[in-house]
Amino acid sequence: MLLLNKFFYPESIAVIGASRKPGKVGHEILRILKENKDKGVFRGELYAVNPDAREILGVPTYPSILELPSPPDLAVIAIPAKFVPQAVDELGKIGTKNAVVISGGFAEIGGEGIVLQDQLVRIARKHGIRIVGPNCIGILCPESGVDTMFLPYEKEIGGKTLKSLPRPKTGSISLITQSGAFGVACLDYMAGERLGLAKFVSYGNRADVNEAELIDYLASDPRTRVILVYAESIERGKEFIEAAKRAVLSKPIVVLKAARTKAGARAAVSHTAAMAGMDDIYDAAFRQAGIIRVNNVEELFDVAKALSMQPPAKGKRIAVLTDGGGAGVMTVDELERRGQIIADLSGETEERLEELKRRGVIPPIASVKNPIDLTGSADDEAYVRSLEVLLESPVVDGVIILALHHIPRLTGSLPEKLAEVARGVDKPIVFCDVGQGEYAVAFREKFEEHGFPAYPTPERAAIAMSALTAYGMIRRKFLEGGLITP
Amino acid sequence: MLLLNKFFYPESIAVIGASRKPGKVGHEILRILKENKDKGVFRGELYAVNPDAREILGVPTYPSILELPSPPDLAVIAIPAKFVPQAVDELGKIGTKNAVVISGGFAEIGGEGIVLQDQLVRIARKHGIRIVGPNCIGILCPESGVDTMFLPYEKEIGGKTLKSLPRPKTGSISLITQSGAFGVACLDYMAGERLGLAKFVSYGNRADVNEAELIDYLASDPRTRVILVYAESIERGKEFIEAAKRAVLSKPIVVLKAARTKAGARAAVSHTAAMAGMDDIYDAAFRQAGIIRVNNVEELFDVAKALSMQPPAKGKRIAVLTDGGGAGVMTVDELERRGQIIADLSGETEERLEELKRRGVIPPIASVKNPIDLTGSADDEAYVRSLEVLLESPVVDGVIILALHHIPRLTGSLPEKLAEVARGVDKPIVFCDVGQGEYAVAFREKFEEHGFPAYPTPERAAIAMSALTAYGMIRRKFLEGGLITP
């Protein structure tokens, strides 16, 4: 564990294969790390290794690893594959214990690549060096400034220069990924969706550090609240499952396992040379381990957002509070499809809502059955008082607030008013406003600033809520020591 | 048909129940129509009816309908329900033939509301007046400037005033909706997603004009390329199905039918007083009519976008062209889940791609099996030449281009280069770049400017392509006079 920690919080980094030439991997990595150091985000020492330079980008540069002034906590290796084993041997000699090998040309190309990777691993083991990679994009930790994302930072389009690879802000979602290209796309997706990142690891050929170890590490990482895994295949499945079982007691694990279908599996085989196994075996294993499995990219991040912002639900009885009957119906449809229970409010809860109606707090034409339809005549107060009732109700485990903002009497203060009501309540709340115009976007952003995950369609909100009940169930079962049944 | 046309292209409009008071429905509708007239979007005459004013917002105002200088082509009625039948009677006397009744308080409230609605319909029939509504949001036609969307145009949030109900630009997607609140949210969604609108109708209680007639009208409307329907229940199902069958020969119909599940149906009953029928009956009827049914709000618009921009596919054999193996695998997964065929390229197509490899046009490590993985070394030319091969291939019916923009050698000119290759080709192409950062968004926008529907996740692109093959199949079967089999 302690060793892996240095991958994310090194006090010194050396870039092996640093280059003067913009666009080269060894240049881009050094440039980003230098920028992070200049900005004060990366606070450690930075070195470069290049036989022909004494300085690159203002970073002190040494002709060889053996000449480095002190052993770096972390080496980032971006040199041709055939030179990597020797570099690792030299790192071992000076006492470095952690290396990210970006270089490709190992097991993924077969033949001599496999031999080279075996050699790399043997040398690393001899010195007790831990390797992330090879054939990977590496590590991103916005908090510490460790960032080996060497792909172009900016690109030109339509006469404008735009950020080509935006980094997410610091946050509590961690992602480990088999695919580097897809990992980079995920960072871009997270940045645009304003999702915060704790740790990102593209582990490539996982010659040494594998998914299981990374999950153990992230389980122990206080910054990580949700662990996301993207994989086409999983190696050493038993270790993985055991690590997941340990982790889910403290934080949820969400897996997007591609190559689900026969066609997908065939495609994955030609892509990674990793055997993509039978999907139903994965499915059973994930269930046994308490892993939440998602079906697609959007769901991965929708679910991650909900799990990073809201507590798990204590049961599956969900209430829907809306001002649009149709949207309420769609939410209920998706909840039922996802195995949730539409909370039956009859009795005290309904009586309290009827009382609000009598007192003129909620409109007389409102429907107080679940989904509760406050109608287009609703105002902020109607939402506030109704939410209060639902949060206090013993028959409600979670609430989806669906406030279509278009109606006249809802205001931009609704998010903070509802946050006031929800403060200290241990029941998950998920928000939805349908629309992609500027007000809808601003309204959802404001809800998220107040801690409510917000979605642009009823179904996405229902999916997010379903993950919160799933994780609640997983935790209960694991804490009770029982097994998860489907 | 001709009569319905005046709802969208009237030469004169009278707002019955126009008000001086901002926020009132009769004020907001008049204000919007006046603005559209001032902007030159609405080119006809505009009148207001109000007993106590001679002029409102600069619009000539008359004390009663009977005193209007000439019968308006379209009357928009926003007065209390009990006065509506008389107003319609007066409209009949002066010779107006089309009225949108915004007012609520009819069948949806039961009891006397039902009686009032019957009376309204009787009077309208007597005069040969067509009614949209009552209890609706009405009509939006960005092309002609007819716009009865009375909900707040702007609202304040976080100290800023933002457009609360943005209108979509003029385009080729038409939407008819049972739910007004959800309809408004759809307009907001379309505006933000840059989807163009031809006609929008919120038909409310459909006392007179119903879904079937609207579908017939939209089928004949040259501006409409895709017809979207949102409904919780469908009345006069046989007429609806017959209208749909006629329409799908010329344009696709996509239906989002809520109240799919038992819980959803229960919720819908309390919401609309309309009987939400058994879902499998709807399913069978939709299939028989050649209607494309979608599962959620996002799919509705994703599919609409694809159908409005690309030709239907002649078969289900799809090729995926990518620079990210993982994303390719996910695309193939979703395609297979949706019943598509992953095109088998072996033979001539693969040979031509191999030839590109030999000539150094596509990288030597590329995989030329479907999904074709050009890898992170790909450049624009590799995409252009590969797409050319796929479009010419007799074994490919449609192509999903998945260009993760992050890699170094792809440029912002890719969209126009690919558009050049695709010009005049009658095979659908769908685009995907994963990411929500500024470059990804700009890249997708540029693809859309060039006519390629673009999506931020592989699965959404695959769903869009599946709709293009579904509509292709529907058209073939209907043109052959056969029936659709599941």
Provide tags for this entry:
homodimer; 486 residues; alpha/beta; Rossmann fold; 3 domains; seven-stranded mixed β-sheet; 16 helices; 18% strand
Explain how this protein is built.
- 2 copies of one chain form a homodimer.
- Chain A is of the alpha/beta class.
- The first copy, chain A, folds into 3 domains: 137 residues, Rossmann fold (3-Layer(aba) Sandwich); 159 residues, 3-Layer(aba) Sandwich (Rossmann fold), CATH 3.40.50.261; 169 residues, Succinyl-CoA synthetase domains (Rossmann fold).
- Chain A has 16 helices and 22 strands.
- The longest helix of chain A is centred in the C-terminal third of the chain and has 22 residues.
- The radius of gyration of chain A is 25 Å and the shape is elongated.
- At the A-B interface, β10, β11, α5, α8 and α11 of A face β10, β11, α5, α8 and α11 of B.
Low-confidence stretches of chain A: none
Reported by name, the CATH topology of the largest domain in chain A is: Rossmann fold
| Portion in helices of chain A | 40-55%
Number of separate structural domains of chain A: 3
- Average pLDDT confidence of chain A is 95
Strand order of the largest sheet of chain A: 3-4-2-1-5-6-7
Could you state the oligomeric state of the chains shown?
homodimer
The largest β sheet of chain A comes out as: 7 strands, mixed
Fourth-level CATH superfamily of the largest domain in chain A = Succinyl-CoA synthetase domains
Q: What is the number of helical segments of chain A per DSSP (H or I, 4+ residues)?
A: 16
What structural class do helix, strand and pairing data of chain A support? alpha/beta
Distance between the termini of chain A: 32 Å
Can you tell me the CATH class of the largest domain in chain A?
A: Alpha Beta
Assign the CATH architecture of the largest domain in chain A.
Answer: 3-Layer(aba) Sandwich
Q: Tell me how many strands of chain A there are.
A: 22
Cα gyration radius of chain A (Å)? 25 Å
